[in-house]
Amino acid sequence: MRTDTGRIIHLADYRPTDFVLERVDLTFELDPEATKVEARLIFHRRDGVDPAAPLVLDGDELTLSGLLFDQMEMAPERYTATPDALVVRDLPETSPFELTITTIINPQANSQLMGLYRSSGIYCTQCEAEGFRRITYFPDRPDVLAPYTITIIADKAANPLLLSNGNYLGGGNFDEGRHFAAWFDPHPKPAYLFALVAGDLGVVEDKFTTMSGREVALKIYVEHGKESRAAYAMDALKRSMKWDEEVFGREYDLDIFMIVAVSDFNMGAMENKGLNVFNDKYVLADPETATDADYANIEAIIAHEYFHNWTGNRITCRDWFQLCLKEGLTVFRDHEFSADQRSRPVKRIAEVRHLRSEQFPEDAGPLAHPVRPDKYREINNFYTTTVYEKGSEVTRMIATILGRDRFKKGMDLYFERHDGEAATVEDFVRCFEDASGRDLGQFSLWYNQAGTPHVTVTADYDAAAKTLTLEIGQTVPPTPGQAHKKPMHIPLDLALVLEDGTIAVPASVDGAEMTGSVLHLKEARHTVTFTGIPSRPALSLNRSFSAPIVVRYDQKPADLALIARHETDLFSRWQAITDLALPALKDAALAARKGEAIQIDVTFADALLAVAADPALEPAFRAQALALPSEADIARELGGDNDPDAIHAGREAVLTAIARAGADAFRTLCDTMTAEGAYSPDAASAGRRALRNAALLYRTIAEDTPALAAEAFAKADNMTDLAQALTVLAHRFPEAPETHAALSAFEARFAENALVIDKWFQIQATIPGEGALARVMRLKENRHFNENNPNRVRSLVGAFVFSNPTGFNRADGAGYRFLAEEILRIDAKNPQLAARLLTSMRSWRQLEPGRAELARAALVRVEREVLSNDVRDIVDRTLKG
Ligand code: PHE
Ligand code: ZN
Predict the structure, then answer these.
(1) Paired residues of 821 in beta bridges
(2) 267 lines ligand 1 (CB under 6 A)
(3) Which of 10, 612, 816, 836 is the most exposed, having the fewest neighbouring CB atoms within 10 Å of its CB?
(4) Mean predicted confidence (pLDDT) in 278-303
(5) Is residue 305 annotated as a catalytic residue, yes or no?
(6) CA atoms of 401 and 358, how far apart (whole Å)
């Protein structure tokens, strides 16, 4: 464990290093338990730095086994080595010098999966954010950039492959069956982008010719025998490379681009220069084992990591406070890519659903923090949905405010001005100001103020004057450490939809700046008047989700229905349908909470069913309309004193009412949305499957029998249909013989495929109701479960705590006690994984008092017994905030 536990790092304390690192030369002699790392580092003292200042290098659980200064043994009184630092004194005033640092590390014993570790017999590394310091003593911070030369020496039979960043220099054989390979990465980079992989893997190869005509070798390495499952990833990679050239003008810059899939990985994937390392879940796919969602994720994550080559690697972050500079921007880029490859409105709906279900609760709870935080205790805990997804939304708003062309100019300026540098959010924003002449000073509050802004609107139409007046107010709720907020610059895209479905074009707008259809809110209150409006319009607000805000506007159901029918912005049509359904979902939950009979007036469902049956609309969109807000969404809307059982019961009642009202339509959809020919993962085919499966769910609810899903399970010729049928069976009829048969058949058929068994764990972990906990505990004993593998833990324990509201939030608190046990045990091996699981408690204060008290007690226990800085940081903030 690190010994700096508890220290808080502040953005305001940033200062450059005293020494400049010129070059890095690393030699690894790989051994499972005793890998020797020799680091030759050339430094010089920065101009103006105190000549007596020592060089301080970071370490984490290291032991020094040798130190040379300019090739000579260093006198012991000139340095101090501890597990977490190497301090070297009496260094030259100006001239460059070389340190040769030798450390011996144990990859086999590395269960944190940070630094150099072993995964299924493969050596691999993970260095972001602070993993490099577990390999050697180093100035391990993102503003220290240098070119790297790497030599890897290993047993040849066990490790025919020796990979690192950059271009291959050469290799050869050594004594005792060993061999070596050397790599050189000419692009200066920070240590967090270093990677090494060694072992025996299969490869899929291809090539790509860049826009300037250079040929790049593409290689994806996977376990032997899994090569055919990497074909889609390769295709996604080539499309990403092409798209980045066409849309952002960015070309790849090395002779080779490699991806390695590993089965033990804490996150999704990592953008190491020229050598991305992936969680195999985001590489491997074929129709028999991957769902449509898996394919879409693979495409997005391959793109994301590739796009980091320019946004993250060529231009990196000055310090970890600037994390959104690479992550928010790169998420924005991968969203745009997926929107271009698939359906833009459907992609936008999925993004917003995700933002609302993950980021909004974070922003409204004890772990809320700005997109660019100004302090942290453990940086691993800031790879959050706020930094990533809200960070992407902030970039999107810049594009909305500036317009497409000026946004592009700003991006070009950013690439030109900061290539090869470690930049800040201010540098980024300045490029858009300089390229557009627009002041983004107030806008920059989006980076610094946490919390989701609430925008409240009232409307008054004057028929005689033909004017519409809007009173618009904004507030940003208090968040930990930020009691008072300033008004934000909110770009609010809106449309005035007239009774005949057309969109009114106002003669004039007064009270706020308007560019195109975007109203710029900058004050706490605006009175905005539109003139020349022929009749009372319905208000379509926040079109395409132009800002990540909550809009409060009391819209008449008839107006929502009008928008659901006529808006040209498809996102807004979907939003209107959701807004029509929400009151029914909330009322039903409240009735269940009071123990009253649930009464449902299903007239709201007319608009939804009309969209579902409309052949003019794409099936994926129609499926989105049928997917009601989740139980977590309803909990958020209710805003406190929540009883997950009541929310579940209310939602079930609404689903049943819709299922009955739309019985005919759902039957037709099941019959007509059938596959044409062999399975293809393309977006249009996936949309048809999504619509048919949504209809199948409603039919099953209406008919209340496992027969339909059992039949679908038997007939399925792809994993999307198979997993969906199994989910319906398990979640709706957990004790039915059909369900038991299907679960056993699935387990037997996919016993050799851990990623598919993960789906089996996840489906069972999310079966609603209080029986879930016993089921999860039983599954932990299953021979396929492995507590050391993050994917297994996330599929079983993670799915239970994050995605099973009734099962986890059992009224007797047993779910919380279980989580506390899990956290404490997992923390001893893998603190990052444990800390992330614990964020499932972030909304505990929204629970009704009985559950909230039990949740608090479990958190207090974790706080008392926790070991790691990672978990301690999360538990302290969760209890305090
Ligand atoms: N930087 C990775 C990404 O592309 C995420 C990551 C962070 C991976 C930390 C590993 C460790 O989003
Ligand atoms: Zn990223």
Answers:
(1) none
(2) yes
(3) 10
(4) 98
(5) yes
(6) 25
